[in-house]
Amino acid sequence: MKKAISILAAAALVCSCAQDRNQILKVYNWSDYIDETVIDEFEDWYEEQTGEPVEVIYQTFDVNETMLSKIEKGKEDYDVVCPSDYIIERMLASDLLLPIDRDFGDTPNYIDDNLSPYIRSCFDKMEGGSKNANDYAVGYMWGTTGILYNAKYVTDEEASSWDILRNPKFADKIFIKDSARDVFSQIIIFLRQDDLKSGKVTLDELMHDSSQEALDAVENYMKQVKPLVAGWEADFGKDQMTQERGWVSLNWSGDGVWAIEEAEEMGVELRYALPKEGFTVWFDGWVIPKYAKNTKAAKYWINFMSRPDIVIRNVDVTGYVSVSGASEVLEAFTDDSYEPLDLSYFFGPQADSVCADPVLYPDRADIERSTQEHDWGARTPDLVAMWGRVKGENASASTGIVIGVVLAAALAFAVYKRLNNRRGSKKRRK
Questions:
Q1: Cβ 26 vs Cβ 74: under 8 Å
Q2: Domain boundaries defined on the chain
Q3: Full-model pTM
Q4: Pick the CATH number of 143-281+374-420 from 3.40.50.1950, 3.40.190.10, 3.40.50.410, 1.10.8.420
Q5: How far apart are CA 303 and CA 114, in angstroms?
Q6: 8 Å CB contact between 360 and 257
Q7: Percent helix, strand, coil in the chain (nearest 5)?
Q8: Cβ–Cβ under 8 Å, residues 230 and 174
Q9: What single string gives the DSSP state of each residue in 146-212?
């Protein structure tokens, strides 16, 4: 389906040369990050609301920086794109975003009516100079970074600390996201535990520490972890967890939900933990780039994506969690098979005891141990260089063999999943 959409998008681009640009909406989103049936529905809904026709040209990317480069260097005229939090900050700082107009005439403003107060506060904390991210970006999905683990081999106590990654008991059974930013953030939280407990530093302050001292500390720690790692992965680690080739994985909550559900069908019990030292939350959001040509349709697209019924469908298909705090969303994901959680921070005071999946919606007590990452600006190349040294030095032949086997197995399993059209498509963050 993804290939089919790419082909159709390319054909549409060719045909659009003679078409009024105001009747075209160019959307650039992560792969497998939407219920594809809502695209046609948006076209019909837009014409109903405005009396104007529109055709969506929908394209996908797999890496934030690929999307950013096309806009920043290529000046591509995408009308609406969906970057991650730190890229939103970078685009704000580089003056690459347009403010999102909330005037929809007689159409309800689903954006502001349903946005979770928690998400709004997190976007307030994004760095954009004098610009507030809430004026230039609207959240789409969000989640946490934690430990996915096999309950047969790993205890809850072992999974409650980031230091599980350094435990020799799990040698060659550990998979770690190939994401320098996500790994750095969790490990620096672990390494600075004493300072956090004493109040010498806060979690938010740690996320702004791009010093060489911090980079060196994380690099030294990860070089201790490296001999135990079976693979650095962007997407295949969760498959290895479901097949018990991996027992421990530094992973994202959305992938965790997918893996837990898949593993259950195979008789494997996977769990997801948010380590006691602290962890990061992440966000993706819709923005209108500087070179957009159809800002009207773009803002209506963002509004449509914030409509509760569309939110629920996108969550069902992707397995990730929407930023929507709408009562319909709360009701849709209430599940009496889980213990009550305090979700009042997300949905409001009426949600102080809700039965829901804690992997999707962490309890307030867990969220209070969280923080959010930020763009490193000019220091980003130093972060990338550190990560390259961690992965690139002293790679053993056995590690290469393991990774080769893993990749082959992941490919076979991916084909199997695609043929079976299962829930839980995923995106890739870097």
A1: no
A2: 2-115+125-141+285-323, 143-281+374-420
A3: 0.87
A4: 3.40.190.10
A5: 10
A6: yes
A7: 50, 15, 35
A8: yes
A9: EEEEETTTS-TTGGGSGGGGG-GGGTT-EEEES-HHHHHHHHHHHHTHHHHHHTSS-HHHHTT---H
Q: Which residues lie closer than 8 Å to 262 by C-beta, 6 or more apart?
A: 238, 242, 422, 424
In angstroms, rounded to a whole number, what is the distance separating the alpha carbons of residues 182 and 192?
16
Q: Return the CATH number of 2-115+125-141+285-323, one of 3.30.43.10, 3.40.190.10, 3.50.50.60, 3.30.1440.10.
A: 3.40.190.10
How far is it between the farthest Cα atoms of the chain? 65
First to last CA, the chain: 23
Q: What dihedral do alpha carbons 148, 153, 154, 156 form, nearest 10°?
A: 100
**How far apart, in whole angstroms, are the C-alpha atoms of residue 356 and residue 351?**
11
Per-residue model confidence as pLDDT tens digits over 200-233: 999 999 999 999 999 999 999 999 999 999 999 9
In angstroms, the CA 213 to CA 201 distance is 15
Locate 21 and state its tokens. Answer: 């640009």
Question: 84: which DSSP letter?
Answer: B
- Measure the CA–CA gap between 319 and 338, rounded to whole angstroms: 17
Task: Quote the CA–CA distance of 272 and 358 in Å, as a whole number.
Answer: 9
CA distances from 399 to 242, 338, 404 (A): 20, 39, 9
Regions of the chain where pLDDT drops below 50: 1-16, 394-403, 405-430
Domains 2-115+125-141+285-323 and 143-281+374-420 alike in fold: yes
In this structure, are residues 275 and 186 in contact, taking their beta carbons and an 8 Å threshold?
yes
- For the four alpha carbons of 367, 141, 235 and 411, in that order, the dihedral sign comes to positive
